[in-house]
Amino acid sequence: MVPHTEFESYYGRPVIKAPSWAARDIAGYFFLGGLAGAGSVLAAGAQLTGRPRTATAMKVSSLAAVSLSAAALVHDLGVPSRFPNMLRVLKPTSPMSVGSWLLAGYGPAAGAAAVTAVSGRLPRVGAAATATAALLGPAVASYTAVLASDTAVPAWHGAHRELPYLFAASATAAASGMALLLGPTHESAPARCAAALAVGAEEVATRAAERRLGMVAETYRQGRAGNLLRAARLLTATGATTGLLLGHRSRPAAVVGGLALLAGSACTRFGTFAAGVASAEDPKYTVAPQRAAANSSDEAAS
Amino acid sequence: MTDRHLLSGTEPDLARDAGHPEPPPRVGFFTDTSVCIGCKACEVACKEWNAIPQDGLSLTGMSYDNTQGLGASTWRHVAFIEQQKPQVPAPDGRTRLPLVEAESDPSDGAGGELRWLMSSDVCKHCTHAACLDVCPTGSLFRTEFGTVVVQEDICNGCGYCVPACPYGVIEQRPSDGRAFKCTMCYDRLGAGQEPACAKACPTESIQFGPLDELRERAALRVDQLHAAGVDDARLYGHEPDDGVGGDGAFFLLLDKPEVYGLPPNPVVTTRDLPTMWKHAGAAALSLAGGLAVSFALPALLGEKRKGTR
């Protein structure tokens, strides 16, 4: 248990440097990557189970999301013209390197899946691309949690076991929201079911993370992060409930539910991002847990 | 199975494991803050030698320290800590500045003598350097001297090293976008010279040399201070089995690390990376599994409905 008492610091200045990433770019990237990745799995499932309109819609949405997310990533670089340097090396110790290669494989597959679905040409290529995108999609949706937690940011690193599940659940919520929004109501049963599962999983992952984080968990409840995450809970719950109860018979209800799920997923990502920044900017979240760890290891040694 | 872990723990053969076949001995800094006089010559020498741009003139009002901290354009930073401490015997060689009367301020409950702690901070050149590990371009590399350097022509400004550093050292320069930090004067080392900050330090508070030698010297100095009654003297970052595998730049401090703005128990962020990838893999599988269930359930329910009809 981390004591919630006084801590010492150098005139209150942060110990670690907060990420210099722009929230719109990087939290936006987390959201879009999740939407694209989970969307590709949904598209493949819809295609296999004879839901062609949902399949095509999700392929197009995944292509759009992954294109936007790549644009956000490049936009956030200090020297965008040097983006290709990302592909100089493949480093398993760098989640960003792994992610760049993952996107390099996933992006073209998602693109081919969408183009063949819309044009109706090259069905075999389309099937292969759909399958590839569906295989890489879950990785695209969940690796971003490793990207965030492989930092010294207390709110992210401390939750490194739970964040992947939270991100995967949030990605599922976004993709099922998109399917409710774009797909016809008679094809939306899996999306409604997935949204309900995602809401449950998100709740479990969030609670587990807060328990493990101890006093650092307050960065998820306070300020901007707290507001965003409260909105996220409300929106995803509303979206999933609306979808589940009315999504199969009312088109407007499906649209409202879908939009709420998408907005909820975006709020989850921006809220998590804000919690990380808040935890990096206040030295107490770095010093207090480390001091407690140092003291307990000293006690164990003596 | 040995205890050896590639991402954390002790690493005796750092440069060779990084691919340098015949490396010179690992070098580093030992910064003995007990003899720092806060002249900031190291800050200036570093700026001059490395041609680092200015970061603007601002008065912080927090102490005599107007540099505030390490950053993209500050690779050495001298912290000034003003404290009210109950009677501490002055160690040999420490400059005592007659700033105020030695009597305690009646408004301050702690009482005691006002003292200044000064400490020149720098990149720690960790044995397990998170910045190097997470860099996606290979811009950060381990030199033959065991130090960590950014290659400016490869850095694309992704900024990942910035939150990865457990010490808050490396930073992106706003005007430029790329990340910068102390190179331990890699250019000077290659020419057999010591880094500019160590060269400029008038009190030998900053000592440069082979790391093993520095660690021995530091241990002697701590014993000396303890014998002189300075019980708070302690080494920071010297142990090769700490959270970052030991620092290439370590310190003798006269108070807790957090007082100087240093993390008390830093851990290389990539130590937990195998766990992270494992959970991300499980999460990816759960995502696929969850969606598979979502497709299977309606189908099963649909079958049932058809069956009962």
UniProtKB/TrEMBL annotation, chain B:
Entries under InterPro entries matching the protein: 4Fe4S_Fe-S-bd (IPR017896), 4Fe4S_Fe_S_CS (IPR017900), FDH_Electron_Transfer_Unit (IPR051555), Formate_DH_Fe-S_su (IPR014603)
All residue ranges annotated as the 4Fe-4S ferredoxin-type domain in the record: 27-57, 114-145, 146-175
PROSITE patterns in the cross-refs: 4FE4S_FER_1 (PS00198), 4FE4S_FER_2 (PS51379)
UniProt key word Membrane: yes
Region (Disordered): 1-25
Keyword annotations from UniProtKB, A to Z: 4Fe-4S, Iron, Iron-sulfur, Membrane, Metal-binding, Repeat, Transmembrane, Transmembrane helix
Keyword match Kinase: no
Transmembrane domains' residue ranges: 280-301
Location relative to the cell: Cell envelope
Primary subcellular site in the record, as a coarse category: other
SUPFAM superfamilies per record: 4Fe-4S ferredoxins
Protein name as catalogued: Formate dehydrogenase iron-sulfur subunit
Source species taxonomy: Bacteria, Bacillati, Actinomycetota, Actinomycetes, Kitasatosporales
